[in-house]
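Hello again, I could really use a second opinion on something today. I've been staring at a protein lately and its backbone has me curious. Please have a think about how the structure follows from the sequence. I owe you a coffee for this, so here goes:
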Amino acid sequence: MIRAAEFFEWDAGEAMRTYGRVIPAARGHKFSVHHQPIGVVAAFSPRNFPMSQPARKIAGALASGCSIILKAADETPAGAVHIAKAFEDAGLPPGVLNLVFGEPAEISGHLIPQDPVRLVAFTGSTAVGRHLTTLASQHMTSVLMELGGHAPVIVCDDTDVQTAGDCSSVRKMRNAGQVCTSPTRFFAHESIFENYATTFVERAAATVVENGMDQNVEMGPLANDRRVPALTEMVEDAREKGAMIATGGVKHGDKGYFVQPTVLLNVPDNARIMQEEPFGPVAVINPVSLLDDAIDMANSVPFGLAGYAFTNRADYIDRLIDEVEDGNLSINRLEASMPETPFGGVKSSGYGREGGTEGLDN
């Protein structure tokens, strides 16, 4: 809820700074640049952050002078409903913010071909993003796509192993790993691999898994029953191909959609989890001998949404910034997105940016 409010606060302020510019020209000529609202936005937000994801879409549209039709997630409707009600209570004119629920394919199939719709803004899977982009291209409609990731974490030999291990484990289990920017593929230098992996595993095993509404609980359930067998199959595939299950790997308890925090070590490249985002509380930790190897492994997937690293060396940081193929790279902290920073992916993780001074350009 606080994060949602921060998006509104930032974009409201940024709305007053959408400057145009005057371009120097020869005598008798005048060149000027004006920013104008693109038009109606058809937006689609996912279930995993039911307040902040609708807020980011709504804030960007309203701050740039656009009306918006938001299709929020049916599984988590309350957040979007409360936001819409707040704007209604504040006096937003009817028709500026519109909220719909229902079958996603029917809604997108109806909205995107409409002439007034000039932008499709979507956060979700790469497969669905490609489908919506194809549909939008048939009508020359712009798109803003924030799609799936498979975030790497490069742990260099000079880092504080205890701090990095604890931070990595806690962040991996945030929202039960159901985050598109969730750190998943950890590449630790071989000189610190054992200590880092031990620290990570011990912290993961100590994670309190229960009802997320209860106090002191650190991790709740997965979103639906489909995710439990999907994760189990992915972990079993890695084990069959030689990976070591250091902790977890099975369902937690006999009720609900709970899965144990799981850590896999020494996972071979041909395991599914090395190429497919688990979207759950499963981490891969592999040793690397050189920074070159770590960067190559980080870039070895078709996704590039968020990336992370732990190091205190300036030369390492320069290389990571230049060479890691991610839309957002964080050093020594596992936070990929804030209201004041532009957020979005490269490669199959989409294009366009939300947030920051760049966020309203779309």
Remarks:
- The chain has a mean pLDDT of 96.
- The first strand starts at residue 21 and ends at 23.
